[in-house]
Amino acid sequence: LQPTNNPDVKIHLGNIPPEARTDADTHSTELNILDEQKNGTQINPKYWTAAEQKYFCLEYIEGPCFVINNNGTNVWAEWPSELTMDELVLYLIGPVMGFTLRMRGTLCLHASAIAIGELAIAIAGPSGAGKSTTAAAFVKMGYPLLSDDILPLELNPHQLLVSPGYPRIKLWSDSVRHFHGDVNALPQLLPDWDKRYLDLSGNIHLFHDKPRPLGAIYILDSRIASDTPEINDLVGTEAILALVKNTYRNELLSISMRAQELIAINKVVSLAPIRLVQPPMDIKNISRLCDAITEDLSEILTTAHSNAL
Question: Whole-model pTM?
Answer without folding.
Answer: 0.89
